[in-house]
Amino acid sequence: MGTIDFAPLFRSTVGFDRLFDLLDGAARFEAADDYPPYNIEKTGEDAYRITMAVAGFEPDELSITTQPNLLVVAGQKAKQDNVQYLHHGLATRAFEHRFDLADYVRVKDANLENGLLSVDLVRELPEAMKPRKIQIGQAQQPKAIEAKAADSQPEETKKAA
């Protein structure tokens, strides 16, 4: 699969470097990111949930780490020394999965139940970033123009004042 050249877009956009990096990374998607299987769902206007199938992992064998615009979920199964498998079909290998997060998305909660790890995310825009309506007012005339307007009034109007 070829890569996409974003150079023409760089000439007409400002501040979208991170978006282009994300698109470029998506083009190089690796099959290794498929383990463990996961779902991403939208649960509300600004709420999301990532659910990962981590059967066989205990809560202390999983870690969830957040960094700016990044969520890292990792698992490392504890070594079991005196277990002899006749068939070892459960995939409990170590993993690390990275999720790129949009600005102002934070982890709200995480739960492990029935082999499913659920990570709830919420987007909280700062008050300064929320849309607001701007009132349109009338600009005041400069004082010099008002003075000239007063001088140009008819004599009758000036005497009445």
Give me the secondary-structure category: alpha+beta
Number of strands: 7
Proportion in helices: 10-25%
Question: Tell me about the biggest sheet?
Answer: 4 strands, antiparallel
Low-confidence stretches: none
- The count of domains is 2
- Identify the strand order in the major beta sheet: 1-2-7-6
- Approximate shape: elongated
Determine the CATH topology of the largest domain.
Answer: Immunoglobulin-like
What is the terminal separation in angstroms? 83 Å
Percent of residues in beta strands: 25-35%
Q: Return the string of H and E elements.
A: HHEEEEEEEHH
Number of continuous helical runs: 4
Radius of gyration: 30 Å
| CATH class descriptor name of the largest domain | Mainly Beta
| Mean pLDDT over the residues | 80
CATH architecture of the largest domain: Sandwich
Would you give an account of this structure?
This protein is α+β, with helices and mostly antiparallel strands and 161 residues long. The chain has 2 domains: 1-32, no CATH class; 35-131, Immunoglobulin-like, CATH 2.60.40.790. It is 19% helix and 30% strand. The chain contains 4 helices and 7 strands, in the order ααβββββββαα. The strands form 2 sheets. The protein has a 4-stranded antiparallel beta sheet with strand order 1-2-7-6, with no helix packed on it. A 3-stranded antiparallel beta sheet has the order 3-4-5, with no helix packed on it. A hairpin with a 2-residue loop joins strand 1 (38-44) and strand 2 (47-53). The mean pLDDT is 80. Residues 29-139 form the SHSP domain.
